[in-house]
């Protein structure tokens, strides 16, 4: 037995080799799926489900796009108590067009006519963004809620999304995404609640709804 | 019949009243659950699952926190090809401490020793942030991957998360969150893939991975 080599060195070498082989196979699979994806165009992403993180994910993509010097448009269809942080932050940037629907959550305003008017105005803004090829990313935050209550017509949304500029990305958030929207989207993620802080009795924090 | 009142006005009034009552019940339920949540402390949020939006959700929370003038710390445990946008963007801000683990995805470096060294260095940074009560939000991006490969010890993470400053929020992202981490987290969301653009043959876009 070689004094300079620990008695389990062969086993370690073997393990390292297997690790490397496994990682190489993994890389090959991923590289192949990326290579297959050869359509160079903007993506329509839908973030739905009841779990936390839908809107913040959309806002993270705004940050990413700004990091690449892109122009971004945001329309918030529901002005929640927690969205003020993002609004305060992203309004600082000239590259961001930011529009917030005037009213709060529908169950806070409790006035359907006013809700519909506010949603229609927000959708008019969204449509303008979806027609502007200078805008690389459009985030339509909580649009699914407006669709669910039929404050905005689904057909209009589908048409506007499908006829938007070729390289423009669009992110649509909110629970209960309609199937027709899922059908036309490229990527759809459902956020599922595994656990929620409210259930654990933790008070919502100023600014950071986690 | 009153000439000034459309013949279906009563039906409309009735529908509006039912709508209002439904929204009031909804508001009552939500207000109550918020009122029950009376523990004023920072939240530990875990974002896991295979779907898109985990990291971007964490970065959206960074934007939200910055909008409220908070100090933020970010550690990226896996330097992905797509994370350069966020890094370029958030490094602009003095309120953000940003640390990126030196290496790429494990299946791209294919060198376990180097991966472990890089992960250990990243975790040392994370621990410093988790001990600093001037930092209101700590994002540990893709830490779950480092845990899965056992590059970082789960016990150390649990201990550091549980003994962090009382008002500090921590967001941990990455697929395959270990059960012990889910157990200590306050809010856990699982991102599920309903559809992915790669499947539809769309090329990954510079800067915006949707």
TrEMBL record, chains A, B:
Gene3D superfamilies: P-loop containing nucleotide triphosphate hydrolases. Coiled coil: none annotated. One of its GO terms (molecular function) is corrinoid adenosyltransferase activity. Pfam families: Co_AT_N (PF12557), CobA_CobO_BtuR (PF02572). Keywords: ATP-binding, Cobalamin biosynthesis, Cytoplasm, Nucleotide-binding, Porphyrin biosynthesis, Transferase. Its EC number is 2.5.1.17. Transmembrane segments: none annotated. It is found in: Cytoplasm. The keyword Cytoplasm applies. It comes from the Bacteria. It catalyses: 2 cob(II)yrinate a,c diamide + reduced [electron-transfer flavoprotein] + 2 ATP = 2 adenosylcob(III)yrinate a,c-diamide + 2 triphosphate + oxidized [electron-transfer flavoprotein] + 3 H(+); 2 cob(II)alamin + reduced [electron-transfer flavoprotein] + 2 ATP = 2 adenosylcob(III)alamin + 2 triphosphate + oxidized [electron-transfer flavoprotein] + 3 H(+). Pathway: Cofactor biosynthesis; adenosylcobalamin biosynthesis; adenosylcobalamin from cob(II)yrinate a,c-diamide: step 2/7. Residues 11-34 form the Cob(I)alamin adenosyltransferase N-terminal domain. InterPro entries: CblAdoTrfase_CobA, Co_AT_N_dom, P-loop_NTPase. Belongs to the Cob(I)alamin adenosyltransferase family. Required for both de novo synthesis of the corrin ring for the assimilation of exogenous corrinoids. Participates in the adenosylation of a variety of incomplete and complete corrinoids. PANTHER family: CORRINOID ADENOSYLTRANSFERASE. This is Corrinoid adenosyltransferase. It comes from Neptunomonas phycophila. The gene is cobO.
